[in-house]
Amino acid sequence: MEPKKKVKVSVEPLLAIIKQNKLQVDTKKVRRAFEYAEEAHRGQKRKSGEPYIMHPLSVAMTLADLGLDESTILAGLLHDVPEDTMRTLIDVRKEFGSDVGTLVEGITKLGKLKYRGMERYVENLRKMFIAMAADIRTIFIKFADRIHNLQTLDALPEKKQKRIAEETLNIYAPIANRLGVNILKDILEDLAFQKAYPKEYEQVRVLLETGQKERDKCYMHLHKGVTEALVEQKIEIISFYGRTKQAYSLYRKLKQHKNNPNKIFDLLAMRVIVPTIQDCYAALGVINSNYRPLPGRMKDYIAQPKPNGYQSLHTTVLCDKSIVEFQIRTPEMHQQAEYGIAAHWFYDEDGERIPDKDLNWVKELAKWQAEIKNEKKYLESLKIDVFQNRIFVFTPQGDVIDLPEDSTPVDFAYAIHSEIGDKCSRAKVNSQLVKLDHKLQSGDVAEIIVEKNRKGPNPNWLKFVKTNQAKTRIRANAPKPVWEQVISGVGQKLSKRKK
Ligand code: MN
């Protein structure tokens, strides 16, 4: 028998991407990090049977595709070293410097966050994910890591596949969306949707496929016709393209419309970008007079922007049997629509208000998002410090509770449930009994011990609780001090006597 041929994994494909994207990256360092990781993971295999190094290599390739910087690419190669090999974080730091070390450390921390399908904690988990990342580059590495894990998901048991896929749809993709990294959002959703809901994915895929030829025809027809008409009217076209709806977002829309695909008008959207607002209205006129607009489907989001700031003119026209939506906007409006992440944090896709009041940090996020766009270098120095006033505390089940700084076990108890707050008698933090006015720290695991027969909260708690939720509830439910009971008793007697 011939000896099994050893597959040698090479760093060359990564170097090729770096070269192709003209990245300012020291290829010697990349080789060194690759060899370091390869040696550390040697003998380890992925569940798929591949040599483990394939995974960090693929992660680094995604990061290079995105045009990220040297430290991020190196950290991508090294991201699983401290967790899974004999080499420690200190070793990595010593060998590759503190910037790379900090990124790898961030990834290791993020690995500890798990989504268990609890809807009410999803928003906290998203926030915590960002808070723990500390450096936005860590989030990119985590996304690249998740993409490769999704691509190789088949090797895992089905239950685990589903958990990872759902976590991607509920935590990762929304964060990518809000960060304005739409390419990543689309990749994550596409990969995860298949695994989380295979039947539904298949339905949507078939639906998209059956209409594809038709849509292509429409696209060609409308693109040609509208271009000619606009040129004739001397309206400058900055950009004009078609966009098919993503499978996952089509699926969500279908759910809203009781699975009736005829209710969905934007399977194919045509985007027309023209220089000025005046041009937008002129273009709308041109389109409406050349094609038959569907009544009631015209929308002027320029005069009346959506609550999230979205602006465009929409009109829906018939093209054979298909319905096509035109979105007409200026480059500034387009920018807002694509990257207006402040909007995305506050409102969902359809402009509905998300019922979460405490989102100030999100405005900060929006600010630095705008800065990233202006200056790529900014990425390197970017630190997330918008969470200075928030802490994140775990329940023993691993759910995350978002609290203001200096919160106590009583605040924590009320954040879980008002009954638990009212009846809380003692608390454990990281398995140690603590006083009820103990100041919680981010990352603590807190446990509340309730006393079933307790009458209500202790009014003295008002001296140390931080959240309004706790304060209001304690004021309302605390047993009245003795003198108040006496007075009200006297009052009752008096009123009885009057009768
Ligand atoms: Mn990994």
General description of the model:
Helices cover 54% and strands 11% of the residues. The chain is built from 21 helices and ten strands. The chain has a five-stranded mixed sheet. β6 and β7 form a beta hairpin. α6 crosses α8. About 10% of the residues have low confidence. The chain binds manganese (II) ion (MN).
Q: Key features?
A:
single chain, 499 residues, alpha+beta, Hypothetical protein af1432, Beta Polymerase, domain 2, Ubiquitin-like (UB roll), 3 domains, 3-stranded antiparallel beta sheet, 21 helices, 10 strands, 54% helix, binds manganese (II) ion
Short description:
This protein is α+β, with helices and mostly antiparallel strands. The chain has three domains: 12-192, Hypothetical protein af1432; 204-345, Beta Polymerase, domain 2; 388-482, Beta-grasp domain (Ubiquitin-like (UB roll)). 54% of the residues lie in helices and 11% in strands.
CATH superfamily of the largest domain: Hypothetical protein af1432
**Global structural class:** alpha+beta
- Average pLDDT level: 80
Q: Give me the side-by-side strand order of the main sheet.
A: 1-2-5-4-3
Heterogens: manganese (II) ion
The CATH architecture of the largest domain can be named as: Orthogonal Bundle
> Which strand-content bin applies to the residues?
5-15%
At the first level of CATH, the class of the largest domain is Mainly Alpha
Topology, element by element:
Layout lengths: L11 H9 L6 H15 L12 H12 L4 H9 L2 H4 L4 H22 L11 H12 L2 H16 L6 H21 L3 H15 L1 H35 L6 E6 L2 H10 L11 E6 L3 H14 L8 E2 L12 E7 L2 E8 L1 H9 L1 H6 L13 H15 L3 H4 L8 E5 L5 E5 L4 H8 L1 H5 L1 E6 L2 E3 L11 E5 L17 H10 L4 H17 L1
Parallel strand pairs: 2-5
Antiparallel strand pairs: 1-2, 3-4, 4-5, 6-7, 8-9, 8-10
Helix pairs in contact: 1-3, 2-4, 3-4, 3-8, 4-6, 4-8, 6-8, 7-9, 8-10, 9-10, 10-11, 11-12, 11-13
Bound molecules: manganese (II) ion.
